[in-house]
């Protein structure tokens, strides 16, 4: 059940205390109760007002006594103001305690961020609050698995706790608990079956072997697949429970001994787990496409979510790879094929079941609760187009201490906003467009803080936000990983080319900038470009609601050492404390400083460009040479299945119309002369920029994808099979796959019409984009 609770400390019995005293409280007179409520409201309003007044007062009065800066570019001057000692201090302050969203510890972190933003002189610094459904374990009773003999004697049991290594930093027992958010609670017994990554091809292969998956306990291993998709597959196949572990193949490539793992390297030891959420979706699960403001109506109950399988209906639990080895040692069944093989020193088996008629028991304690979360907002007001702004963001909530995810990014972004204000105070510079800084809460649960903000300010953001720059974490010191909308890919590349590579090994190899390393490790995948490969926008961080729901161009970047993709070996573990950064991943905070440079370069590109830096040609090239050919190829291959021809006739017709529109739009885009547009008077440039903003919104379908009102972008949104990944126009590809696999004529008729409609919707988006670039009254 959902328990109403507001920011109580992890593990405390505060709710019980309030319940036990409820009768006494409610016996007080209505008059006293009303006076008390009024007092609380007045205090709350006064506190908010005081915060905003103080923020604005500091903004007006804060001046630096630093010497004038040399005459360099604005970006270079601001980058020179970045102080790694400040970043280091920020990181230590933010990561003293584990700070899961909705807890008292996380509120303390939010207050630290807010106070620092006020001190920096940002305007209107404030909390942006929502009441949302979050999930928690029992902080004093760990989740465990047990192996039982046939006579019910206990053979083996886990402790359910990760083991701290650096005691002075990892000293809070709450960070030791192993759990997955939004897991169902319960105790189940059954036979285990190994499902590898639990993706569709793995499941199809197991079923081809005749292995019955229903009512089994799944054992899955993390890979590039999102854990929520693993949970979704387990529920779909009727599993009793699902265990997930990180295999040494991904997280301990040097070996599993103490010299090869954490303490000496950034690799995962055998006694910890990756934690996280298993919810697939955006925002508060109860309020899709509707902001969870205070006591506003919440559309879905917890039971609704369980009935619709929006959250798992079975216990989910992360386990260590040491525990996984014990399970494999006791597992029945044939040895696995090469694709299922990991690097544990054991024979991997499919199961099902354990030897000697042993049974596996899984016990998970979990509860969903309503809690208050708070985003922290503040801005630097622009001088020429103050109503237009670039949104610059990171999140601050963490599963444990968060020194990498996310507070390596938080500490860096705080220093970026400080340096921008210092430069403004020293020189009088004001950005042409405003800069809105956001530190999101509850990202880890399902991008909740950012999504609720996007839903509340939907119209204002769609009209005024020129871009979102989101950076999650500093996950390595080797290279940059970036993604963006095609129209703003140039901004990301330009920024990377203007930031010096902080890794001396990379420099010795002749890779002088972040761009050079990025291009080396992620070369172009087509013959049209020599630029580094950029994935299309997908899930995984707070940029998602802004492009997929609102159509705002996004730039997202992290750093990586290309180990344990798509993250890093110690992702979401107890070991994310400053020791990991300062002794292993980024001694000297040089990578943090480089990422600060990325922020600054991207920010100024969006605030200072006379014409917004949207490269429409890149979108059109991708559409003509990549997106449409892939669709055409899929259609043609499906046509080769003779029985499907009649069901694709309408789709073929709509596809030809789409091709025609895209070519017409491409011709319009090619005729644009950006250099001449930049010479136009200010008012004319504003009109052109408004059209560019409108152009991007053309690709938003206000009704959303089938069954998902939040997936509104017709070109890009995450894959239903892997939240971390996606494909252009994926909704059309998915329908073609369904037609290919279906043999039911009634279903095929329905899918045929859906496919034609979805292709037509993409066409309408490109038609709208044509209108945005043309004169409305000369159509």
Automatic annotation (TrEMBL):
Keyword match Transmembrane: yes
Keywords of this entry: Membrane, Transmembrane, Transmembrane helix
Pfam families found in the cross-reference section: PA, Peptidase_M28, TFR_dimer
Domain Peptidase M28: 375-577
Residue ranges of every copy of the PA domain listed in the record: 188-274
Family: Belongs to the peptidase M28 family. M28B subfamily.
Protein name: N-acetylated-alpha-linked acidic dipeptidase 2
């Amino acid at each position: 059940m959902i328990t109403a609770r507001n920011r109580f400390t992890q593990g405390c019995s505060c709710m019980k205390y309030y319940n036990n005293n409820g009768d006494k409280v409610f016996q007080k007179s209505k008059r006293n109760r009303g006076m008390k409520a009024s007092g609380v409201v007045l205090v709350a309003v006064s506190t908010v007002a005081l915060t905003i007044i103080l923020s604005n007062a500091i903004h007006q009065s804060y001046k630096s006594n630093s010497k004038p800066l040399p005459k360099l570019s604005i970006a270079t001057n601001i980058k020179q103001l970045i102080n790694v000692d400040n970043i280091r201090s920020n990181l230590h302050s933010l990561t003293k305690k584990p700070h899961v969203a909705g807890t008292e510890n996380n509120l303390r972190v939010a207050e630290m961020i807010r106070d620092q933003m006020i001190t920096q002189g940002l305007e209107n610094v404030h909390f942006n609050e929502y009441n949302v459904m979050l999930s928690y374990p029992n902080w004093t009773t760990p989740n465990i698995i047990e192996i039982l003999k046939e006579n019910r004697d206990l053979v083996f049991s886990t402790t359910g706790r990760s083991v701290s290594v650096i005691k002075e930093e990892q000293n809070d027992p709450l960070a030791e608990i192993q759990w997955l958010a939004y897991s169902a609670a319960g105790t189940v017994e059954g036979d285990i079956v190994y499902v590898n990554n639990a993706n569709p091809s793995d499941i199809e292969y197991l079923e081809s072997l005749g292995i019955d998956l229903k009512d089994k306990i799944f054992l899955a291993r993390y890979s590039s697949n999102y854990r929520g998709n693993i949970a979704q597959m387990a529920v779909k196949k009727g599993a009793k429970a699902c265990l997930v572990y990180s295999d040494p193949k991904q997280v301990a490539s040097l070996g599993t001994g103490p010299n090869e793992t954490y303490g000496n390297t950034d690799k995962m030891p055998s006694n910890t787990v990756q934690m996280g959420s298993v919810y697939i979706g955006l925002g508060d699960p109860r309020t899709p496409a509707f902001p969870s403001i205070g006591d506003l109506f919440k559309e879905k109950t917890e039971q609704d979510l369980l009935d619709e399988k929006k959250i798992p209906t079975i216990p989910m639990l992360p386990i260590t790879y040491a525990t996984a080895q014990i399970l494999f040692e006791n597992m029945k069944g044939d040895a696995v094929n090469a694709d299922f093989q990991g690097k544990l020193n054991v024979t991997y088996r499919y199961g099902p079941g354990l030897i000697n008629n042993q049974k596996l028991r899984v016990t998970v304690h979990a509860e969903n609760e309503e809690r208050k979360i708070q985003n922290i907002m503040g801005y630097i007001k622009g001088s020429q187009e103050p109503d237009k702004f670039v949104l610059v963001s990171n999140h601050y909530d963490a599963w444990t201490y968060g020194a990498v995810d996310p507070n390596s990014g938080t500490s860096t972004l705080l220093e970026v906003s400080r340096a921008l204000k210092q430069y403004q105070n020293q020189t009088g510079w004001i950005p042409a467009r405003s800069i809105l800084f956001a530190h999101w809460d509850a990202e880890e649960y399902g991008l909740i803080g950012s999504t609720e903000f996007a839903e509340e300010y939907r119209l204002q953001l769609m009209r005024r936000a020129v871009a979102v720059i989101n950076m999650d974490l500093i996950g390595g010191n080797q290279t940059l990983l970036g993604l963006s909308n095609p129209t703003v890919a140039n901004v990301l590349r330009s920024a990377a080319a203007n930031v010096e590579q902080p890794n001396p090994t990379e420099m010795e190899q002749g890779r002088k900038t972040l761009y050079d390393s990025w291009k080396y490790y992620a070369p172009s995948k087509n013959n049209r470009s020599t630029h580094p490969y950029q994935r299309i926008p997908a899930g995984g961080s707070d940029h998602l609601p802004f492009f997929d729901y609102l159509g705002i161009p996004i730039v997202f970047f992290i750093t990586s050492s290309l180990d344990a993709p798509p993250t890093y070996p110690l992702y979401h573990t107890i070991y994310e404390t400053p020791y990991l950064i300062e002794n292993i991943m980024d001694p000297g905070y040089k990578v943090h400083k480089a990422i600060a440079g990325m922020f600054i370069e991207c920010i100024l590109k969006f605030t200072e460009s006379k014409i917004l830096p949207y490269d429409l040609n890149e979108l059109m090239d991708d559409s003509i040479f990549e997106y449409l050919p892939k669709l055409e190829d899929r259609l043609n291959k499906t046509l080769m299945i003779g029985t499907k021809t009649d069901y694709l006739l309408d789709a073929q017709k709509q596809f030809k119309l789409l091709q025609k529109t895209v070519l017409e739009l491409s011709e319009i885009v090619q005729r644009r002369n950006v250099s001449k547009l930049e010479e136009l008077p200010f008012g004319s440039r504003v009109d052109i920029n408004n059209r560019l903003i409108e152009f991007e919104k053309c690709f938003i379908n206000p009704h959303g994808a089938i069954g998902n009102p939040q997936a509104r972008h017709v070109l890009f949104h995450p894959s239903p099979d892997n939240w971390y990944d996606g494909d252009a126009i994926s909704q059309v590809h998915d329908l073609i796959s369904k037609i290919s696999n279906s043999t039911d004529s009634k279903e095929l008729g329905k899918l045929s019409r859906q496919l034609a409609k979805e292709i037509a919707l993409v066409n309408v988006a490109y038609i709208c984009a044509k209108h945005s670039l043309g004169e409305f009254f000369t159509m």
